[in-house]
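Sample A.
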Amino acid sequence: MNKTIKTIIWIVVIILVVWLVASLSMKKFSRESSEAIKIGFTAPLTGDMANTGENAKAAVEIALDEINQAGGVLGKKLEVVYEDDACSGAAGANAASKLVNTDKVSAILGGMCSSSTLAEAPIAQAAGVTELAFCSTSPSITQSGDYIFRDVPSDFFQANYAAEYLMKNGKKNVALLTTKDDWGDGLNKAFENAFTKAGGTIVLNDSFDPQAKDLKAQFVKIKVKNPDAVYFVGYTDNSIAGLKQAHDLGIKAQFLGADSWDDTKTWQELGTLGDGAMYTVIGTNSSDAFKAKMKAKLGKDDIVYCSNYAYDGLKILANAINLAGSTDRVAIKDAMYQTNYTGGVSAREIKFDANGDPTSAMYIVKVVKDGKATELTQ
């Protein structure tokens, strides 16, 4: 074989190698450019708070459709990976670990319950994955790390609002009964501080297990104290059971609950027995269009306020990824701090402070009549 033929063979081999490498690279680029951008979603889809979690999931599905119909994120389809955190720390940690390590999500929307969010946050923080809690209000979340955000305000605001409302309406002697977990403990401490500073008296401070359904012993003690009002902080099932037991005991005090009472299941099951109960809840900016879409999705009029913040939460994360210009984790986190989200169905404007908390808060009081809760005109 002469030198010329050898040279030609080597040139052909080099060309083939270059073509093969280029072909593989193009295939990889094509595959990567067509892959969807994933965002994880965690909420209780089973258990006590499942009605609220499923309601929020429906809102996220609406937001997802709107985002993809508008061109997706960075020119790619957005995909949401849904995980059930059962409103518990253990399930939340498992959900976050799967989303971060197996699904390789670019961000997480969740959790809904404070206990699950506080378990998920260290996992997201360690991995450098932005997490936006859409309904978790425990004050402890504020210090969870620079990758952890929420679009609902801390319970410091809610507790202060509740304390101010009761004092303004002449309820100066209050019994305090709260679920024994991160959310309930946060509200308990914040309410007690705010109420006593305003000159009120806590005649009894008691708590119960989040899974408890028998609260008769606590309400017997409350009846003996004869308070002007009972600040009762519980989840759906124990609130239903507790209010029934308080009614059976003949307690006539004004009942004031917190935002978990916005679950329509509570008042549907209690019917007229729940009449007169009140609760504080974060205000929303619901539009007729959003209400119509939720009704079409659920087959009924049933919007829990968490759903408004879940809907806006997905759009906030999508906007942050677009602003970052990539799925780089640090860039997404930095873009969140630059967020100025307006025109949503939750708050009129959402910005985040240095701790990832919203910079403003607006609360309202709802009152129950005939199995339905409506905003109280003050």
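Sample B.
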Amino acid sequence: MSISERFLEHELGKFYYQVDGPQNAPAIFFSHGVAMDHRTFNDQVQGLKDTCRTITWDMPYHGRSNSIDKGLSFSKTAAEIVVAIMDELGIDQAFHAGLSLGSFVVQRLSNLYPTRVLGEIHISGGPLYPKFPGILKASIPFTAVFMKLYPSKPMARTFAKHKALAPETIDYLIETVKHTGKDAITHLTNEMVRDMVAGVSEPSSKPNLIVYGDHDLSFIIKMSKDWHARLPNSELAMVENAHHILNQDNPAVFNAILVDFLEMVQQR
């Protein structure tokens, strides 16, 4: 099956997504991070093309998708759009993989629509349960000021080198950061903070895979380990020679970890 390019016609606008793989195979839905797009998961789509039905998309503010009202909760709205895409494709349940911001979307979806989730894959993510202290929201005004003062061109390169190791991943991020723009990046960064403070009502009961890169920030690595320790039905894996965008920095190792997890869950 060749990749099918589509738009979801939604009351909030048009949202771009791609579908690949056998129609009757297990489905896995990928949600990217801030200032990225569906291409973040090209290596996963290629690696799973014979065994899984893969769905990748451009989340609101990204790629070929619309922006949404900034008054809406991003993760909740994105989760609702994911479910609408699943409905359009006739998919009742899927594995859901999220990178960074996408991990928050997966957790929100699993909390609101648990029957639509077979398992969760969190790539460089962080837990929404338990929720973080409200004082964290004090950082929001400073983020806005910092981003406004930071020149756009060097910001794109700094952002990319802060997230990736592989030259091709860095080049990809420079492109997508410029396309997304500082205003959207600022808003989405602050939305992540709001999500962390709001949290979700209970920890996930679904099988979870938590993955981090060995070159990621120390607090991401610690958070991943602590999350795994608190979540009984979870697996933890580290990808060597990889930063935050670990699935692009070292796709072969990540894909092997992902396939093992998918097979393990389906054999239960």
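B remarks: DSSP finds ten helices and eight strands in the chain. The longest strand covers residues 13-20.
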